[in-house]
């Protein structure tokens, strides 16, 4: 955390301290309904060009994680029929790594004047707000992806509409004590001021 961080600002302190927690370091208890409600409320504060409200979240926990594992293994078997039994078992076990998996989707409207990338940006900004809100409630999370996100059969199995995109698997739970706290780069390498056309000469 930068030395200049204003300690009196808890929202900023939380933002500056956030780090992903590897799925294998997420423990019980996972976020309950109240925590998920707050996190989704935070997601709905993301900037939203056109007010299209593209955010769609599906929560998978308990026994349903094993059912999701079957969906993932079936998907892999279809997409890569040569997959070994070990590889399929690995895919099947993925959702069991954390107490809760939140499937982050986006309802997209390709015909709308707001470009699809902006709609996706709104949905992705919502995912980040959701993760920050989980973090603020003492819940760790990590945003993972996989080819299964682009499988229409997976989408359908999870109850998403055909026009929805799946943006990621958000694994959530109580962070293990030895969770990583990565050192971040200094911000000054990532911003600069532009003072007019002469700056580009
Ligand atoms: C859209 C998206 C997809 C991601 N997919 C993966 C993934 O499949 N596997 C992975 O190890 N990290 C993935 N990441 C990165 C992790 O979520 C995380 O950012 C990374 O482990 C670094 O941790 P940090 O967030 O604390 O910097 C993804 C991030 C984003 C935004």
Automatic annotation (TrEMBL):
Keyword Flavoprotein set for record: yes
Q: What is its EC number?
A: 1.-.-.-
Could you tell me which species this protein originates from? Falsiroseomonas algicola
For this entry, the protein name equals: Putative NAD(P)H nitroreductase
Domain Nitroreductase residue range list: 26-173
Q: Give the UniProt keywords, A-Z.
A: Flavoprotein, FMN, NAD, NADP, Oxidoreductase
Similarity annotation? Belongs to the nitroreductase family.
| CDD domains recorded | YdjA-like
Keyword Oxidoreductase recorded: yes
């Amino acid at each position: 955390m930068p030395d200049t961080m204003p300690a009196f600002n808890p929202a900023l302190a939380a933002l500056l301290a956030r780090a992903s927690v590897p799925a294998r370091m997420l423990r019980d208890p996972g976020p309950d309904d109240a925590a998920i409600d707050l996190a989704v409320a935070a997601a709905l504060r993301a900037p939203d060009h056109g007010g299209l409200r593209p955010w769609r979240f599906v929560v998978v926990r308990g026994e349903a994680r094993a059912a999701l594992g079957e969906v993932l293994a079936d998907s892999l078997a279809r997409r890569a029929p040569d997959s070994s039994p070990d590889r399929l078992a690995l895919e099947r076990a993925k959702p069991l790594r954390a107490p809760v998996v939140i499937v982050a989707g986006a309802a997209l409207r390709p015909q709308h004047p707001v470009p699809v990338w902006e709609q996706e940006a709104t949905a992705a900004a919502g995912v980040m707000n959701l993760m920050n809100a989980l973090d603020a409630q003492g819940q760790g999370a990590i945003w993972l992806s996989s080819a299964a996100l682009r499988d229409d059969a997976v989408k359908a199995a999870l109850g998403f509409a055909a026009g929805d995109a799946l943006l990621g698997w958000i694994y959530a739970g109580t962070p293990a004590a030895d969770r990583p706290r990565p050192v971040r780069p200094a911000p000054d390498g990532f911003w600069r001021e532009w003072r007019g056309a002469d700056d580009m000469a």
